[in-house]
């Protein structure tokens, strides 16, 4: 029967312990220790977390690396610093050291690739925030007032007085996402429009017909 310590040392793939024929234990320090473990994971963020910057807590379950390690999975909580305006698809690294037999500390490097979680109003395009406003045909011709709640909790009331077409966009300057390198600089809010056409239109609708009457013509 193996001694428990000898069994763990002999079966530990990270350390370089081995038994000599006389039963003594030798540590081979010349063997390459190898690099850290690399773990790549997605990191989903809300637009609010990116807008203000935040510290994201990520829970990870680490499997035991050796038979001498804990049999049950260990729960790790990493604190990831999210800078203001951090771009989608960017990477953040976090290194974790763990004690191991023979080498002191063995590192695991976690590489997180950021993803934007869906927002109920906005979609990010670099520093700009894009929103789609549905409008009725009557609003296309007569105009509309749009109320926007921004990420920094402002209420904007935007009057659209131009005739709205499929290609028409409205820009609200300096109300988008902050620049990661210079948070004082911000992108824009871009409003695009989706026109809702009626399935049918009664010709007796006097209100609608009046829109097409040329008031300059005397009848």
Automatic annotation (TrEMBL):
InterPro entries: DnaJ_C, DnaJ_subfamily_B, HSP40/DnaJ_pept-bd. It holds the Pfam family DnaJ_C. Residues 40-198 form the Chaperone DnaJ C-terminal domain. It comes from the Eukaryota. GO terms for biological process: protein folding. GO terms for cellular component: cytosol. GO terms for molecular function: protein-folding chaperone binding; unfolded protein binding. Keywords: Chaperone. This is Chaperone DnaJ C-terminal domain-containing protein. The lineage of its organism: Eukaryota, Metazoa, Ecdysozoa, Arthropoda, Hexapoda.
């Amino acid at each position: 029967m193996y001694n428990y310590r000898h069994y763990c040392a002999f079966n530990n793939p990270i350390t370089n312990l081995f038994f000599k024929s006389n039963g003594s234990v030798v540590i081979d320090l010349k063997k390459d220790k190898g690099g850290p473990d690399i773990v790549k994971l997605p990191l989903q963020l809300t637009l609010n977390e990116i807008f203000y910057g935040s510290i994201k807590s990520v829970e990870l379950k680490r499997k035991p690396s050796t038979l001498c390690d804990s049999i049950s999975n260990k729960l790790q909580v990493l604190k990831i610093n999210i800078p203001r305006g951090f771009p989608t698809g960017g990477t953040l690294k976090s290194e974790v050291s763990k004690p191991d037999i023979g080498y002191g500390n063995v590192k695991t490097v976690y590489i997180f690739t950021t993803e934007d979680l869906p927002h109920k109003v906005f979609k990010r395009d670099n520093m700009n925030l894009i929103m789609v406003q549905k409008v009725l045909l009557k609003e296309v011709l007569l105009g509309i007032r749009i109320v926007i709640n921004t990420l920094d909790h402002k209420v904007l009331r935007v009057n659209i007085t131009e005739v709205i077409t499929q290609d028409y966009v409205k820009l609200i300057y300096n109300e988008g996402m902050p620049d990661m390198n210079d948070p004082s600089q911000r992108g824009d809010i871009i409003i695009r429009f989706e026109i809702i056409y009626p399935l049918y239109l009664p010709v007796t609708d006097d209100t609608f017909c009046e829109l097409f009457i040329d008031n300059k013509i005397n009848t």
